[in-house]
Amino acid sequence: MPFSINPESRIPIYVQLKEAIKFAIATGELPPASQLPTVRQLAVELKINANTVARVYLELESEGVLSTRPGKGTFVREHPKINNTYKEESLGELLDDVIIKASSLGFSPAELLKAFEKKLKG
């Protein structure tokens, strides 16, 4: 599975896992109808508590992203509710990071825009 957790991060582990799953679905790494590992399997793989994985699966199921089929497992829904809002929010967070770092290095907004445009072209 394409999930990674940073136990040293200030972001709670369950938030990291939830975002990693949503990101994998949004980018197509986890296509619709694909099966996720069992709660126990993923907990062992990531070296985290099984209750944390169960909580994430339950929350994503209530959000319309995953579905659990008793006796069969947890799957990405055929039409997961990963919408443009999630993608836009993720992009906004990435841009915030870039802007903060560039500004701390002394770049003006015009210089940042010029560098960004240059990167996009080449």
Strand order of the largest sheet: 1-2
- In CATH terms, what is the architecture of the largest domain? Orthogonal Bundle
> Mean of the pLDDT scores?
89
Helical content stands at 55-70%
H/E series? HHHEEHH
Question: β content, as a range?
Answer: 5-15%
- CATH superfamily membership of the largest domain, which one? Winged helix-like DNA-binding domain superfamily/Winged helix DNA-binding domain
N- and C-termini, Cα separation: 32 Å
Helix/sheet category: mainly alpha
User: In the CATH scheme, what's the topology name of the largest domain?
Assistant: Arc Repressor Mutant, subunit A
- Tally of contiguous helical segments: 5
CATH C-level of the largest domain: Mainly Alpha
- What is the gyration radius calculated from CA atoms? 18 Å
Strand tally is: 2
The count of domains is 2
Quick one: overall form? elongated
What's the story with the biggest beta sheet? 2 strands, antiparallel
Ranges where pLDDT stays below 50 over 5 or more residues in a row are none
How would you explain this protein's 3D organization?
The chain is built from 5 helices and 2 strands; from the N terminus they run αααββαα. Strands 1-2 form a two-stranded antiparallel sheet. Helix content is 57%, strand content 7%. It has helices at 13-26, 39-46, 50-62, 84-104, 109-121, and strands at 66-69, 73-76. It has 2 domains: 13-76, Arc Repressor Mutant, subunit A; 84-121.
How is this structure best summarized?
The chain has helices at residues 13-26, 39-46, 50-62, 84-104, 109-121, and strands at residues 66-69, 73-76. The chain is mainly α. The mean pLDDT is 89.
